[in-house]
């Protein structure tokens, strides 16, 4: 059985030496261990985000691929933000490691520090031991903190590596999705252009069919030479007279008024309206045109009278006069009709 200590000072010295020895053993166990500060590391919150759902680029529309691309970019931004946060924390921890190493250094450097601290204390043994204990306690606390931080760093590093891999994969997926979107958008634009061209071709074919039908029915239209000749002459007699919208003579005319007035001299009644005249006449082909036949222009908004030799006579527009122009005078031709 150990003998009880009876001298107060001696007991104090023994207690100090015992504490110092225990602390120094603890310090030695930590010598050379990588140090990091506590509280700087925050675990990556939650489970790792799942990669955006797979998509069949060959079957998906440009709009679907664009939505998928947006999901990938959102996921990539979130992963990159988490990665930056963890890397910032790790950099701060490494800064603490560097500072700790500078403060305490190797075992030999620590021994020199302890020796200097003891030698600077009073000669009395209790004072020296107390100085040693204080220094050892400071190191013990620091290395205890370092041990906890080192364990946290060990957990942090694989998470950083995992996030770096995830960001790299998402970057590659985003590149593939962008290329697929560009290709799909180009293909859809080409398809729309082709559809528009097909629709235009169908409309043109329909118009040609309608014109052909009009031409076919026109071949049976009877041509009244006397009425046509009289109408052409009447129209020529009005050359130089002013255009006035809605006028039908005797000294001013609009386009349909001139035609109605010209045929009225032969007792042929036509409505003073281009659209009505279209319905009141028979369709013919361009190659069947004879003097006195009618030519409609600009969506049936204008009518002129053919006078032969590729020319027509008409009342063009406000500010103009009755005059002769080329059959193809720059306005789109809707068709050819016979009274």
Automatic annotation (TrEMBL):
Pfam families: NLPC_P60. Residues 225-339 form the NlpC/P60 domain. The keyword Glycoprotein does not apply. Residues 192-221 are annotated as: Disordered. InterPro entries: NLP_P60_dom, Papain-like_cys_pep_sf, PG_Endopeptidase_C40. GO terms for biological process: proteolysis. The keyword Magnesium does not apply. Keywords: Hydrolase, Protease, Thiol protease. One of its GO terms (molecular function) is cysteine-type peptidase activity. Belongs to the peptidase C40 family. This is Cell wall-associated hydrolase, NlpC family. It comes from Glycomyces sambucus. The lineage of its organism: Bacteria, Bacillati, Actinomycetota, Actinomycetes, Glycomycetales.
């Amino acid at each position: 059985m150990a003998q009880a200590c009876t001298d107060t000072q001696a007991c104090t010295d023994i207690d100090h030496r015992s504490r110092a020895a225990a602390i120094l053993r603890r310090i030695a166990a930590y010598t050379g261990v990588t140090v990091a500060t506590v509280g700087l590391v925050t675990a990556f919150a939650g489970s790792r985000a799942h990669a955006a759902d797979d998509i069949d680029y060959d079957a998906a529309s440009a709009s679907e691929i664009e939505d998928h691309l947006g999901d990938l970019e959102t996921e990539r931004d979130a992963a990159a933000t988490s990665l930056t946060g963890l890397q910032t924390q790790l950099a701060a921890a490494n800064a603490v490691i560097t500072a700790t190493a500078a403060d305490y250094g190797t075992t030999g450097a620590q021994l020199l520090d302890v020796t200097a601290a003891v030698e600077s204390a009073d000669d009395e043994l209790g004072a020296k031991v107390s100085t040693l204990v204080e220094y050892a306690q400071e190191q013990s606390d620091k290395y205890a903190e370092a041990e906890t931080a080192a364990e946290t760093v060990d957990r942090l590093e694989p998470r950083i590596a995992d996030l770096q891999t995830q960001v790299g994969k998402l970057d590659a997926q985003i590149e593939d999705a962008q290329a697929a979107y560009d290709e799909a958008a180009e293909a859809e634009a080409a398809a729309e252009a082709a559809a528009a061209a097909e629709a235009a071709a169908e409309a043109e074919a329909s118009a040609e069919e309608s014109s052909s039908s009009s031409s076919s029915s026109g071949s049976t239209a009877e041509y009244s030479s006397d009425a046509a000749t009289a109408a052409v002459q009447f129209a020529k007699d009005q050359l130089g007279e002013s255009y006035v919208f809605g006028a039908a003579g005797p000294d001013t005319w609009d386009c349909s008024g001139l035609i109605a007035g010209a045929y009225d001299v032969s007792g042929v009644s036509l409505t003073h309206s281009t659209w009505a005249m279209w319905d009141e006449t028979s369709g013919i082909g361009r190659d069947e045109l004879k003097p006195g036949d009618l030519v409609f222009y600009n969506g049936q908004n204008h009518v002129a009278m053919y006078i032969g030799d590729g020319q027509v006579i008409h009342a063009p527009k406000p500010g103009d006069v009755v005059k002769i122009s080329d059959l193809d005078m720059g306005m789109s031709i809707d068709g050819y009709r016979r009274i």
